[in-house]
Amino acid sequence: VLSFIIFICYIASLAASFMMAPLLEFLLALFLLFAYASKLNEKFKGLHWPLADFLRCVSAAIIYFAISIAAVSKYSDGASKAAGVFGFVATIVYAIDFYLTFNDLVTFLKQGSSDAPEGHKSEGMWNSPAGD
């Protein structure tokens, strides 16, 4: 919702060139919401869903921070200032989501590594018991 509000603010402002970033972030968030709601993450195991969500959060926080600084410092109309302020709020929200998603990603990766077979010793000169 915050990405959509920022998108609307950028459309109404002089900084309309920044409207593509919030639109893409809104569509990516909508896609991931749809994917989790329709259980696509359980059907398509080949895609690492927590990693995709993690990368989306990191990129969104960086992009929103950068365009918010540019919108607030370069443009003086009210809609640009509002979009910049909402962008800073979105940066904080995505940073919190980044932190929570990072914890989920670590849990997901630990779970995936525990499914791997336990240490098989390879027979060879480096692992010989006598140390020849």
TrEMBL record:
Record's keyword annotation contains Transmembrane helix: yes
Membrane spanning stretches: 7-37, 49-71, 83-102
Membrane topology, record value: Multi-pass membrane protein
Location relative to the cell: Membrane
Highest taxon above the source species: Eukaryota
The keyword Transmembrane helix is assigned to this record: yes
Residue ranges, annotated region (Disordered): 113-132
Domain MARVEL: 1-106
Keywords recorded for this protein, A-Z: Membrane, Transmembrane, Transmembrane helix
GO cellular component: membrane
Name of the protein described by the UniProt record: CKLF3 protein
